[in-house]
Write the structure tokens for this entry.
Amino acid sequence: MVGEFERRHGFPPGTNEVRPASRDDQTAARTLAQADLVPADLATFYDSIGNVTWADVGNGYFLDPASDVLLRLQEHGPVDVGTDQKVAIGSNGGGLSYFVGSDGSVHRTRTASLDEPELDKVADDLRQFLELLEQSLTQFVADGEPGSL
């Protein structure tokens, strides 16, 4: 029997969850914090939240686990944008990535390429970004539109 979600979107629902942090996640969060690689509020977030996967909200919204952020930093370093360095923390599932700056602001790429990334600021800090994510989820549940984040 086809459910309402599948009728509306043409595919069955996927994984949608906010996963609590495991011990490994917390260890990676502490490493990020101790090395001063991410803003304090992101390290605090990762101490409680393992990752966010909302595969069915528009193209999807994904906040990567701290271990993935740490591994990406170790392998590739932060992305240099002008005078600031930014750390990749997730994506929208449509090819655009989210980055956090040293000041805690959150940015989104304009294109899927990271060769010469152009970023737009989407939130002043992690709290505002998470509130925008919540608004996108609420809007999607209400009318099927994922918002502009």
